[in-house]
Amino acid sequence: NVVTAPLNGPKDLCVDRDGTIVIADAENNLVRRFDPKISTLSTIVGTGQKGDRLVPTDPLATQVFRPHGVRMGPGGDLVITDSYNHRVLRLRRQT
User: Fold this and answer.
1) How far apart are CA 86 and CA 16, in angstroms?
2) 78 to each of 1, 59, 81, how far by Cα in Å?
């Protein structure tokens, strides 16, 4: 819920092809998805703790450190700039 899960330092956003909005929530060390149809904000990448742990099979166990950019690739994959970890991550679209 948007009221109980506030953003903290959002740096970038993009719109997914399903109409949801993906947000780089830098100060919370998360990547979030807002669904305007039902007014919900959910976490799609990150633990909320800054770090560099990468868990390829579990984006919610992967740590990001101040993500500053998000973009949807042509195939629907999400590309994330994980700024303070000096890396770019790709979250594959689930089919």
Assistant:
1) 24
2) 22, 12, 10
- Contact call for residues 36 and 23 (beta carbons, < 8 A): no
Q: Which three-class secondary structure state does DSSP give residue 57? A: coil
SS3 content of the chain, % helix, strand, coil (to 5): 5, 40, 55
Write down all domains in the chain, each with its CATH number in brackets: 10-91 (2.40.10.500)
pLDDT (tens digit, 9 = 90+) per residue, 22-37? 999 999 999 999 999 9
Bridge partners of 88?
81
Q: How far is CA 67 from the centre of its chain?
A: 8
For 60-91, the pLDDT digits (tens) are: 999 999 999 999 998 899 999 999 999 999 99
CA distance 72 to 78: 5
What pLDDT score does 83 carry?
97
